[in-house]
Automatic annotation (TrEMBL):
Family: Belongs to the UDP-glycosyltransferase family.
Subcellular localization, as worded in the UniProt entry: Membrane
Record protein name field: UDP-glucuronosyltransferase
Top EC class of this enzyme: transferase
InterPro entries xrefs: UDP-glycosyltransferase, UDP_glucos_trans, UDP_glycos_trans_CS
Catalytic activity annotation: glucuronate acceptor + UDP-alpha-D-glucuronate = acceptor beta-D-glucuronoside + UDP + H(+)
Protein backbone atom coordinates (compact mmCIF):
# COMPACT_ATOMS: atom_id res chain seq x y z
CA UNK A 1 0.00 0.00 0.00
CA UNK A 2 2.82 2.37 0.95
CA UNK A 3 4.62 1.60 -2.31
CA UNK A 4 1.46 2.37 -4.27
CA UNK A 5 1.02 5.72 -2.51
CA UNK A 6 4.67 6.63 -3.15
CA UNK A 7 4.29 5.68 -6.82
CA UNK A 8 1.20 7.87 -7.17
CA UNK A 9 2.93 10.76 -5.39
CA UNK A 10 5.90 10.46 -7.73
CA UNK A 11 3.60 10.37 -10.72
CA UNK A 12 1.64 13.40 -9.52
CA UNK A 13 4.92 15.26 -8.97
CA UNK A 14 6.09 14.32 -12.46
CA UNK A 15 2.93 15.47 -14.19
CA UNK A 16 2.87 18.61 -12.09
CA UNK A 17 6.25 19.84 -13.36
CA UNK A 18 4.65 21.44 -16.42
CA UNK A 19 2.05 23.95 -15.27
CA UNK A 20 0.60 26.99 -16.94
CA UNK A 21 0.92 25.66 -20.48
CA UNK A 22 -1.29 27.10 -23.22
CA UNK A 23 -3.60 24.68 -25.02
CA UNK A 24 -5.78 25.31 -28.09
CA UNK A 25 -8.69 22.90 -28.59
CA UNK A 26 -11.09 22.56 -31.54
CA UNK A 27 -13.95 20.06 -31.11
CA UNK A 28 -15.91 18.69 -34.05
CA UNK A 29 -18.58 21.27 -34.93
CA UNK A 30 -21.72 19.21 -34.42
CA UNK A 31 -24.54 18.97 -31.88
CA UNK A 32 -23.77 17.61 -28.42
CA UNK A 33 -22.48 14.11 -29.05
CA UNK A 34 -20.10 11.84 -27.18
CA UNK A 35 -17.26 13.22 -29.32
CA UNK A 36 -17.87 16.71 -27.95
CA UNK A 37 -18.47 15.48 -24.41
CA UNK A 38 -15.07 13.76 -24.47
CA UNK A 39 -13.31 16.91 -25.71
CA UNK A 40 -15.04 18.91 -22.97
CA UNK A 41 -13.77 16.44 -20.39
CA UNK A 42 -10.21 16.74 -21.73
CA UNK A 43 -10.47 20.54 -21.53
CA UNK A 44 -11.59 20.31 -17.89
CA UNK A 45 -8.79 17.86 -17.03
CA UNK A 46 -6.11 20.18 -18.42
CA UNK A 47 -7.67 23.28 -16.86
CA UNK A 48 -7.80 21.62 -13.45
CA UNK A 49 -4.12 20.71 -13.92
CA UNK A 50 -3.29 24.41 -14.15
CA UNK A 51 -3.14 24.92 -17.91
CA UNK A 52 -4.69 27.76 -19.90
CA UNK A 53 -7.17 26.28 -22.37
CA UNK A 54 -8.62 28.14 -25.36
CA UNK A 55 -11.70 26.36 -26.73
CA UNK A 56 -12.68 27.27 -30.32
CA UNK A 57 -16.36 26.56 -31.06
CA UNK A 58 -19.25 27.90 -33.15
CA UNK A 59 -21.86 30.25 -31.72
CA UNK A 60 -24.56 27.53 -31.67
CA UNK A 61 -22.48 25.44 -29.30
CA UNK A 62 -24.08 24.73 -25.93
CA UNK A 63 -21.30 25.62 -23.51
CA UNK A 64 -21.33 23.23 -20.51
CA UNK A 65 -21.97 24.73 -17.09
CA UNK A 66 -18.67 23.35 -15.78
CA UNK A 67 -16.80 25.66 -18.15
CA UNK A 68 -18.17 28.75 -16.41
CA UNK A 69 -16.63 27.53 -13.16
CA UNK A 70 -13.15 27.42 -14.72
CA UNK A 71 -10.75 29.72 -16.55
CA UNK A 72 -11.40 28.12 -19.97
CA UNK A 73 -11.31 30.81 -22.66
CA UNK A 74 -14.16 30.37 -25.17
CA UNK A 75 -13.51 31.70 -28.69
CA UNK A 76 -16.39 31.51 -31.17
CA UNK A 77 -17.09 31.80 -34.88
CA UNK A 78 -20.40 32.32 -36.69
CA UNK A 79 -22.15 29.11 -37.65
CA UNK A 80 -23.92 29.10 -41.08
CA UNK A 81 -27.49 30.36 -40.70
CA UNK A 82 -29.08 27.30 -42.36
CA UNK A 83 -27.36 24.97 -39.84
CA UNK A 84 -27.45 22.24 -42.51
CA UNK A 85 -24.56 20.34 -40.97
CA UNK A 86 -25.09 21.23 -37.32
CA UNK A 87 -27.51 18.37 -36.87
CA UNK A 88 -27.85 15.46 -39.29
CA UNK A 89 -31.35 15.38 -40.88
CA UNK A 90 -33.62 12.80 -39.26
CA UNK A 91 -34.40 11.11 -42.59
CA UNK A 92 -30.65 10.57 -43.14
CA UNK A 93 -30.31 9.08 -39.66
CA UNK A 94 -33.24 6.73 -40.30
CA UNK A 95 -31.69 5.73 -43.64
CA UNK A 96 -28.46 4.88 -41.83
CA UNK A 97 -30.36 2.80 -39.30
CA UNK A 98 -31.88 0.60 -42.00
CA UNK A 99 -28.82 0.35 -44.29
CA UNK A 100 -26.51 -2.58 -44.95
CA UNK A 101 -22.79 -1.95 -44.45
CA UNK A 102 -22.37 -1.39 -48.21
CA UNK A 103 -25.27 1.06 -48.31
CA UNK A 104 -23.97 2.83 -45.23
CA UNK A 105 -20.52 3.30 -46.77
CA UNK A 106 -22.14 4.65 -49.93
CA UNK A 107 -24.00 7.23 -47.83
CA UNK A 108 -20.93 8.15 -45.77
CA UNK A 109 -18.54 8.61 -48.64
CA UNK A 110 -20.87 9.98 -51.33
CA UNK A 111 -19.97 13.45 -52.60
CA UNK A 112 -23.33 14.91 -51.56
CA UNK A 113 -23.39 13.55 -48.01
CA UNK A 114 -23.77 15.49 -44.77
CA UNK A 115 -20.01 15.48 -44.19
CA UNK A 116 -19.41 17.31 -47.46
CA UNK A 117 -22.11 19.84 -46.60
CA UNK A 118 -20.42 20.27 -43.24
CA UNK A 119 -17.08 21.11 -44.89
CA UNK A 120 -18.50 23.38 -47.59
CA UNK A 121 -20.61 25.33 -45.11
CA UNK A 122 -17.82 25.72 -42.56
CA UNK A 123 -14.92 26.63 -44.86
CA UNK A 124 -15.93 30.31 -44.89
CA UNK A 125 -17.03 30.89 -41.26
CA UNK A 126 -14.31 28.64 -39.80
CA UNK A 127 -11.50 30.70 -41.33
CA UNK A 128 -13.46 33.91 -41.99
CA UNK A 129 -11.84 36.01 -39.29
CA UNK A 130 -8.19 36.07 -40.36
CA UNK A 131 -7.40 38.49 -37.55
CA UNK A 132 -8.66 35.90 -35.08
CA UNK A 133 -6.56 33.14 -36.65
CA UNK A 134 -3.54 35.44 -36.73
CA UNK A 135 -4.10 35.94 -33.01
CA UNK A 136 -4.18 32.17 -32.53
CA UNK A 137 -0.94 31.74 -34.48
CA UNK A 138 0.80 34.56 -32.61
CA UNK A 139 -0.29 33.02 -29.29
CA UNK A 140 2.22 30.25 -30.07
CA UNK A 141 0.27 27.65 -28.13
CA UNK A 142 2.24 24.94 -26.36
CA UNK A 143 -0.25 22.33 -27.55
CA UNK A 144 -3.12 21.95 -30.05
CA UNK A 145 -5.78 19.25 -29.53
CA UNK A 146 -8.06 18.31 -32.43
CA UNK A 147 -10.70 15.68 -33.18
CA UNK A 148 -9.22 12.95 -35.36
CA UNK A 149 -12.39 12.84 -37.48
CA UNK A 150 -12.06 16.50 -38.50
CA UNK A 151 -9.19 15.66 -40.82
CA UNK A 152 -9.94 18.33 -43.46
CA UNK A 153 -10.49 21.59 -41.56
CA UNK A 154 -8.51 20.21 -38.62
CA UNK A 155 -5.63 19.31 -40.91
CA UNK A 156 -5.54 22.84 -42.29
CA UNK A 157 -5.67 24.33 -38.79
CA UNK A 158 -2.82 22.04 -37.72
CA UNK A 159 -0.69 23.08 -40.68
CA UNK A 160 -1.39 26.79 -40.14
CA UNK A 161 -0.70 26.87 -36.41
CA UNK A 162 2.34 24.58 -36.79
CA UNK A 163 2.39 23.57 -33.13
CA UNK A 164 2.69 20.21 -31.30
CA UNK A 165 -0.59 18.39 -31.83
CA UNK A 166 -2.57 15.67 -30.06
CA UNK A 167 -5.62 14.03 -31.65
CA UNK A 168 -8.65 12.51 -29.93
CA UNK A 169 -10.16 9.37 -31.49
CA UNK A 170 -13.58 8.86 -29.94
CA UNK A 171 -14.55 5.58 -31.65
CA UNK A 172 -11.31 3.82 -30.77
CA UNK A 173 -9.08 2.49 -33.53
CA UNK A 174 -10.91 4.24 -36.34
CA UNK A 175 -10.36 3.37 -39.97
CA UNK A 176 -9.13 6.75 -41.18
CA UNK A 177 -5.72 6.48 -39.53
CA UNK A 178 -2.79 5.59 -41.71
CA UNK A 179 -1.37 2.07 -41.58
CA UNK A 180 2.01 3.39 -40.45
CA UNK A 181 0.36 4.77 -37.32
CA UNK A 182 -1.68 1.76 -36.29
CA UNK A 183 -0.79 -1.34 -38.32
CA UNK A 184 -3.96 -3.22 -39.19
CA UNK A 185 -3.47 -7.00 -39.50
CA UNK A 186 -6.71 -7.81 -41.30
CA UNK A 187 -6.38 -11.54 -40.56
CA UNK A 188 -7.40 -11.04 -36.94
CA UNK A 189 -8.35 -7.36 -36.42
CA UNK A 190 -11.72 -6.30 -37.88
CA UNK A 191 -12.10 -2.81 -39.31
CA UNK A 192 -14.28 -0.48 -37.27
CA UNK A 193 -17.40 -0.76 -39.47
CA UNK A 194 -17.96 -4.53 -39.34
CA UNK A 195 -19.56 -6.78 -36.67
CA UNK A 196 -16.72 -9.32 -36.58
CA UNK A 197 -14.59 -10.42 -33.64
CA UNK A 198 -10.88 -11.26 -33.72
CA UNK A 199 -11.84 -14.92 -34.41
CA UNK A 200 -12.92 -14.66 -38.04
CA UNK A 201 -13.91 -17.45 -40.39
CA UNK A 202 -12.51 -17.58 -43.91
CA UNK A 203 -15.58 -15.75 -45.23
CA UNK A 204 -15.36 -13.07 -42.54
CA UNK A 205 -11.67 -12.51 -43.20
CA UNK A 206 -12.42 -12.18 -46.90
CA UNK A 207 -15.22 -9.68 -46.18
CA UNK A 208 -12.98 -7.80 -43.76
CA UNK A 209 -10.46 -7.29 -46.57
CA UNK A 210 -13.27 -6.38 -48.98
CA UNK A 211 -14.72 -3.69 -46.69
CA UNK A 212 -11.24 -2.37 -45.95
CA UNK A 213 -10.52 -1.93 -49.66
CA UNK A 214 -14.01 -0.50 -50.19
CA UNK A 215 -13.40 2.17 -47.54
CA UNK A 216 -10.01 3.01 -49.02
CA UNK A 217 -11.61 3.36 -52.45
CA UNK A 218 -14.56 5.41 -51.21
CA UNK A 219 -12.30 7.79 -49.32
CA UNK A 220 -10.99 9.17 -52.60
CA UNK A 221 -13.94 11.61 -52.56
CA UNK A 222 -12.83 12.86 -49.17
CA UNK A 223 -9.26 13.30 -50.36
CA UNK A 224 -10.54 15.26 -53.37
CA UNK A 225 -12.52 17.50 -51.00
CA UNK A 226 -9.47 17.90 -48.76
CA UNK A 227 -7.32 19.07 -51.66
CA UNK A 228 -10.09 21.31 -53.00
CA UNK A 229 -10.55 22.94 -49.58
CA UNK A 230 -6.82 23.38 -49.19
CA UNK A 231 -6.65 25.08 -52.59
CA UNK A 232 -9.27 27.60 -51.49
CA UNK A 233 -7.63 28.41 -48.17
CA UNK A 234 -3.88 28.05 -48.71
CA UNK A 235 -3.39 31.47 -50.29
CA UNK A 236 -5.79 33.11 -47.86
CA UNK A 237 -3.81 31.79 -44.90
CA UNK A 238 -0.41 32.38 -46.48
CA UNK A 239 0.39 28.68 -46.74
CA UNK A 240 2.22 26.90 -49.57
CA UNK A 241 0.00 25.28 -52.24
CA UNK A 242 0.84 21.75 -51.16
CA UNK A 243 -1.38 18.83 -50.21
CA UNK A 244 0.98 17.69 -47.45
CA UNK A 245 -1.46 18.50 -44.64
CA UNK A 246 -2.32 15.20 -43.01
CA UNK A 247 -4.07 15.55 -39.68
CA UNK A 248 -2.95 12.03 -38.75
CA UNK A 249 0.65 13.27 -38.61
CA UNK A 250 0.07 14.47 -35.05
CA UNK A 251 2.53 13.99 -32.24
CA UNK A 252 0.20 11.79 -30.19
CA UNK A 253 -3.21 10.22 -30.51
CA UNK A 254 -5.51 9.47 -27.59
CA UNK A 255 -7.63 6.40 -28.38
CA UNK A 256 -10.84 5.75 -26.40
CA UNK A 257 -9.99 2.14 -25.64
CA UNK A 258 -7.70 -0.11 -23.63
CA UNK A 259 -6.60 -3.71 -23.92
CA UNK A 260 -9.00 -4.93 -21.27
CA UNK A 261 -11.68 -3.76 -23.69
CA UNK A 262 -10.34 -4.09 -27.22
CA UNK A 263 -8.67 -7.08 -28.88
CA UNK A 264 -4.87 -7.30 -28.57
CA UNK A 265 -3.36 -5.53 -31.59
CA UNK A 266 -0.18 -3.72 -32.65
CA UNK A 267 0.07 0.04 -32.15
CA UNK A 268 2.86 2.61 -32.33
CA UNK A 269 4.26 4.24 -29.15
CA UNK A 270 2.56 7.58 -29.94
CA UNK A 271 -0.87 5.91 -29.80
CA UNK A 272 -2.14 6.20 -26.22
CA UNK A 273 -5.17 4.08 -25.22
CA UNK A 274 -7.42 5.94 -22.77
CA UNK A 275 -10.63 4.41 -21.43
CA UNK A 276 -12.78 5.85 -18.66
CA UNK A 277 -12.83 9.63 -19.15
CA UNK A 278 -16.03 9.69 -17.10
CA UNK A 279 -14.62 7.45 -14.39
CA UNK A 280 -15.47 9.81 -11.53
CA UNK A 281 -17.92 9.90 -8.61
CA UNK A 282 -21.48 9.89 -9.91
CA UNK A 283 -23.43 13.12 -9.49
CA UNK A 284 -26.63 13.20 -7.43
CA UNK A 285 -29.67 12.29 -9.54
CA UNK A 286 -32.62 14.71 -9.85
CA UNK A 287 -35.67 14.04 -7.70
CA UNK A 288 -37.84 13.04 -10.67
CA UNK A 289 -35.45 10.18 -11.45
CA UNK A 290 -35.17 9.12 -7.81
CA UNK A 291 -38.95 9.06 -7.38
CA UNK A 292 -39.39 6.96 -10.52
CA UNK A 293 -36.64 4.51 -9.47
CA UNK A 294 -37.98 4.17 -5.93
CA UNK A 295 -41.39 3.30 -7.37
CA UNK A 296 -39.86 0.20 -8.95
CA UNK A 297 -38.94 -1.27 -5.57
CA UNK A 298 -36.66 -4.30 -5.76
CA UNK A 299 -37.49 -4.83 -9.44
CA UNK A 300 -35.11 -2.04 -10.39
CA UNK A 301 -35.00 -0.19 -13.68
CA UNK A 302 -33.75 -0.36 -17.28
CA UNK A 303 -32.17 2.32 -19.47
CA UNK A 304 -32.95 2.42 -23.19
CA UNK A 305 -31.12 4.94 -25.38
CA UNK A 306 -29.89 5.20 -28.97
CA UNK A 307 -27.70 8.21 -28.27
CA UNK A 308 -27.97 11.79 -29.47
CA UNK A 309 -28.48 11.33 -33.22
CA UNK A 310 -31.77 9.41 -33.75
CA UNK A 311 -34.44 11.69 -32.29
CA UNK A 312 -37.32 9.48 -33.34
CA UNK A 313 -38.25 6.06 -34.67
CA UNK A 314 -40.70 4.69 -37.23
CA UNK A 315 -44.18 3.95 -35.84
CA UNK A 316 -43.94 0.16 -36.19
CA UNK A 317 -40.76 -0.15 -34.14
CA UNK A 318 -41.61 2.40 -31.48
CA UNK A 319 -44.80 0.44 -30.79
CA UNK A 320 -42.75 -2.76 -30.54
CA UNK A 321 -40.50 -1.22 -27.89
CA UNK A 322 -43.38 0.40 -26.00
CA UNK A 323 -45.45 -2.82 -25.92
CA UNK A 324 -42.51 -4.96 -24.82
CA UNK A 325 -41.54 -2.50 -22.07
CA UNK A 326 -45.13 -2.26 -20.79
CA UNK A 327 -45.08 -5.99 -19.99
CA UNK A 328 -41.99 -5.76 -17.77
CA UNK A 329 -42.03 -5.54 -13.99
CA UNK A 330 -38.99 -3.25 -14.14
CA UNK A 331 -39.33 0.46 -14.83
CA UNK A 332 -37.79 1.91 -18.00
CA UNK A 333 -36.06 5.21 -18.77
CA UNK A 334 -36.34 5.61 -22.55
CA UNK A 335 -34.43 8.42 -24.23
CA UNK A 336 -36.72 9.33 -27.08
CA UNK A 337 -38.00 12.57 -28.68
CA UNK A 338 -40.49 11.36 -31.31
CA UNK A 339 -44.28 10.94 -31.20
CA UNK A 340 -45.55 9.23 -28.04
CA UNK A 341 -46.22 5.52 -28.71
CA UNK A 342 -49.86 4.49 -28.35
CA UNK A 343 -48.97 1.43 -26.27
CA UNK A 344 -46.68 3.26 -23.84
CA UNK A 345 -46.93 1.69 -20.38
CA UNK A 346 -47.04 3.46 -17.02
CA UNK A 347 -43.69 1.88 -16.15
CA UNK A 348 -41.92 3.77 -18.96
CA UNK A 349 -40.66 7.37 -18.81
CA UNK A 350 -39.83 9.12 -22.11
CA UNK A 351 -36.97 11.61 -21.91
CA UNK A 352 -35.25 13.82 -24.53
CA UNK A 353 -32.06 13.52 -22.46
CA UNK A 354 -30.93 11.59 -19.40
CA UNK A 355 -27.84 11.60 -17.12
CA UNK A 356 -26.62 8.35 -18.61
CA UNK A 357 -23.39 7.76 -16.71
CA UNK A 358 -24.95 8.70 -13.36
CA UNK A 359 -27.89 6.34 -13.93
CA UNK A 360 -25.54 3.55 -15.07
CA UNK A 361 -23.86 3.73 -11.68
CA UNK A 362 -27.11 3.35 -9.72
CA UNK A 363 -27.30 0.09 -7.71
CA UNK A 364 -30.88 -0.61 -8.85
CA UNK A 365 -30.02 -0.59 -12.56
CA UNK A 366 -30.68 -4.02 -14.08
CA UNK A 367 -30.05 -3.59 -17.81
CA UNK A 368 -28.73 -1.12 -20.39
CA UNK A 369 -30.35 -1.31 -23.85
CA UNK A 370 -27.98 0.62 -26.09
CA UNK A 371 -26.93 1.30 -29.67
CA UNK A 372 -23.36 0.62 -28.47
CA UNK A 373 -21.83 3.98 -29.24
CA UNK A 374 -18.17 4.32 -28.29
CA UNK A 375 -18.66 6.36 -25.12
CA UNK A 376 -21.79 4.51 -24.00
CA UNK A 377 -19.99 1.19 -24.40
CA UNK A 378 -17.07 2.46 -22.31
CA UNK A 379 -19.50 3.66 -19.63
CA UNK A 380 -21.25 0.28 -19.58
CA UNK A 381 -17.92 -1.46 -19.00
CA UNK A 382 -16.76 0.95 -16.30
CA UNK A 383 -20.07 0.61 -14.45
CA UNK A 384 -20.26 -3.19 -14.81
CA UNK A 385 -23.70 -3.19 -16.45
CA UNK A 386 -25.17 -6.04 -18.58
CA UNK A 387 -26.37 -4.86 -21.98
CA UNK A 388 -28.59 -5.59 -24.94
CA UNK A 389 -26.88 -4.17 -28.01
CA UNK A 390 -28.95 -2.84 -30.91
CA UNK A 391 -26.29 -1.27 -33.16
CA UNK A 392 -27.49 1.16 -35.82
CA UNK A 393 -24.46 2.09 -37.93
CA UNK A 394 -20.68 2.42 -38.38
CA UNK A 395 -18.59 1.66 -35.26
CA UNK A 396 -21.61 0.63 -33.18
CA UNK A 397 -21.60 -2.91 -34.64
CA UNK A 398 -17.92 -3.11 -33.77
CA UNK A 399 -18.41 -2.11 -30.12
CA UNK A 400 -21.49 -4.32 -29.81
CA UNK A 401 -19.44 -7.35 -30.88
CA UNK A 402 -16.79 -6.51 -28.28
CA UNK A 403 -19.39 -6.24 -25.50
CA UNK A 404 -21.35 -9.36 -26.45
CA UNK A 405 -18.68 -11.73 -27.82
CA UNK A 406 -15.37 -10.69 -26.24
CA UNK A 407 -16.67 -9.52 -22.84
CA UNK A 408 -19.92 -11.57 -22.92
CA UNK A 409 -21.84 -8.83 -21.10
CA UNK A 410 -25.10 -9.33 -23.00
CA UNK A 411 -26.80 -10.13 -26.28
CA UNK A 412 -27.20 -8.43 -29.66
CA UNK A 413 -30.41 -7.75 -31.61
CA UNK A 414 -30.45 -6.44 -35.18
CA UNK A 415 -32.61 -3.33 -35.44
CA UNK A 416 -34.12 -4.47 -38.75
CA UNK A 417 -35.10 -7.88 -37.29
CA UNK A 418 -36.66 -6.68 -34.06
CA UNK A 419 -40.10 -7.94 -33.00
CA UNK A 420 -41.98 -7.75 -29.72
CA UNK A 421 -41.46 -11.47 -29.13
CA UNK A 422 -37.73 -11.32 -29.87
CA UNK A 423 -37.17 -8.22 -27.73
CA UNK A 424 -39.10 -9.68 -24.79
CA UNK A 425 -37.20 -12.97 -25.04
CA UNK A 426 -33.78 -11.29 -25.12
CA UNK A 427 -34.61 -8.94 -22.22
CA UNK A 428 -35.81 -11.85 -20.08
CA UNK A 429 -32.71 -13.89 -20.95
CA UNK A 430 -30.26 -11.16 -19.90
CA UNK A 431 -32.25 -10.25 -16.77
CA UNK A 432 -32.72 -13.88 -15.76
CA UNK A 433 -29.19 -15.15 -16.36
CA UNK A 434 -26.76 -13.90 -13.67
CA UNK A 435 -23.76 -14.83 -15.85
CA UNK A 436 -24.15 -11.63 -17.89
CA UNK A 437 -23.93 -9.47 -14.76
CA UNK A 438 -20.94 -11.46 -13.51
CA UNK A 439 -19.17 -11.01 -16.86
CA UNK A 440 -19.94 -7.28 -16.78
CA UNK A 441 -18.42 -6.97 -13.31
CA UNK A 442 -15.33 -8.90 -14.46
CA UNK A 443 -14.96 -6.56 -17.45
CA UNK A 444 -15.32 -3.61 -15.07
CA UNK A 445 -12.60 -4.99 -12.81
CA UNK A 446 -10.17 -5.49 -15.71
CA UNK A 447 -10.89 -2.11 -17.32
CA UNK A 448 -10.38 -0.24 -14.05
CA UNK A 449 -7.18 -2.11 -13.13
CA UNK A 450 -4.75 0.29 -14.82
CA UNK A 451 -1.52 1.88 -13.46
CA UNK A 452 -3.20 5.32 -13.49
CA UNK A 453 -6.67 6.50 -14.42
CA UNK A 454 -7.72 8.21 -17.66
CA UNK A 455 -7.46 11.76 -16.28
CA UNK A 456 -3.84 11.28 -15.19
CA UNK A 457 -3.00 9.62 -18.51
CA UNK A 458 -4.39 12.60 -20.44
CA UNK A 459 -2.59 15.06 -18.18
CA UNK A 460 0.75 13.24 -18.27
CA UNK A 461 0.97 12.85 -22.04
CA UNK A 462 -0.30 16.37 -22.76
CA UNK A 463 2.39 17.75 -20.48
CA UNK A 464 4.95 15.38 -22.00
CA UNK A 465 4.27 16.82 -25.46
CA UNK A 466 4.39 20.39 -24.13
CA UNK A 467 7.60 19.77 -22.21
CA UNK A 468 9.45 18.23 -25.15
CA UNK A 469 7.83 20.50 -27.76
CA UNK A 470 6.39 17.53 -29.61
CA UNK A 471 6.85 13.78 -29.69
CA UNK A 472 8.08 13.06 -33.20
CA UNK A 473 10.63 10.64 -31.75
CA UNK A 474 7.74 8.28 -30.98
CA UNK A 475 6.75 8.10 -34.65
CA UNK A 476 8.10 5.49 -37.04
CA UNK A 477 9.25 7.67 -39.92
CA UNK A 478 10.48 4.72 -42.05
CA UNK A 479 7.05 3.09 -41.78
CA UNK A 480 5.42 6.34 -42.82
CA UNK A 481 7.65 6.65 -45.87
CA UNK A 482 7.23 3.07 -47.05
CA UNK A 483 4.73 2.58 -49.86
CA UNK A 484 2.33 -0.37 -49.80
CA UNK A 485 4.65 -2.40 -52.02
CA UNK A 486 7.47 -1.97 -49.50
CA UNK A 487 5.30 -2.17 -46.36
CA UNK A 488 3.92 -5.59 -47.22
CA UNK A 489 7.41 -6.72 -48.33
CA UNK A 490 6.12 -7.32 -51.84
CA UNK A 491 9.37 -5.98 -53.29
CA UNK A 492 11.29 -8.60 -51.29
CA UNK A 493 8.82 -11.29 -52.31
CA UNK A 494 9.09 -10.16 -55.93
CA UNK A 495 12.90 -10.30 -55.92
CA UNK A 496 12.81 -13.64 -54.10
CA UNK A 497 10.37 -15.06 -56.66
CA UNK A 498 12.53 -13.77 -59.52
CA UNK A 499 15.66 -15.28 -57.96
CA UNK A 500 13.88 -18.54 -57.19
CA UNK A 501 12.47 -18.68 -60.71
CA UNK A 502 15.92 -17.99 -62.15
CA UNK A 503 17.46 -20.69 -59.93
CA UNK A 504 14.78 -23.21 -60.91
CA UNK A 505 15.23 -22.40 -64.60
CA UNK A 506 19.01 -22.74 -64.26
CA UNK A 507 18.53 -26.06 -62.49
CA UNK A 508 16.17 -27.29 -65.21
CA UNK A 509 18.53 -26.18 -68.00
CA UNK A 510 21.52 -27.68 -66.23
CA UNK A 511 19.63 -30.93 -65.63
CA UNK A 512 18.64 -31.08 -69.29
CA UNK A 513 22.23 -30.45 -70.38
CA UNK A 514 23.54 -33.14 -68.05
CA UNK A 515 20.80 -35.51 -69.17
CA UNK A 516 21.54 -34.91 -72.84
CA UNK A 517 25.27 -35.21 -72.24
CA UNK A 518 24.92 -38.52 -70.37
CA UNK A 519 22.23 -39.86 -72.72
CA UNK A 520 24.18 -38.95 -75.87
CA UNK A 521 27.40 -40.44 -74.47
CA UNK A 522 25.51 -43.61 -73.58
CA UNK A 523 24.08 -43.81 -77.10
CA UNK A 524 27.55 -43.39 -78.62
CA UNK A 525 28.99 -46.15 -76.47
CA UNK A 526 26.08 -48.39 -77.37
CA UNK A 527 26.63 -47.85 -81.10
CA UNK A 528 30.34 -48.58 -80.77
Amino acid sequence: MAATILTMMAFCLAVGLINGGTVFMVPYALVKTSRLAAMEKIALILTQAGHNVTYYVHNEYDIPNEFFETSINIEQYEYPSDKIAYSAPEDLVQEFMMSTIEGELDIMFAKDNIFFHYIHHLVHPYFNDLHQWKKFKDAFFDLVILDSWDFILGGIAKQYLDRPTILWSNAGYEMHFENWLMPLPLAHIPIVAVPYSDHMSFTERAMNVYYYLMMIWCKRNWYDLRDETWGKLAGKLGLPPTTNHKLSDGDLIFIQSNFAYFYPRPIMPNVIPVLGLKDKPHKPIDDKFIEFIDGAGENGFIIMTFGSMPRGMDEHRREIFATAFAKLKERVFWRYSGPIPKSLGENTMLLPWLPQNDLLGHPKLKLFITHCGASGSAEAVFNGVPIIGIPLFYDQRHHCTILTQRLKMGLVVNFSDITEKLLTSVVNEVLGNPQYKQNALKAQELARDQPVNASYTIQYWAEYVMKHKGAKHLQSRPMKELNSFQYYMLDIVFVFVICLTFAVMCFILLTRRVYHFVFCKHQKLKKQ
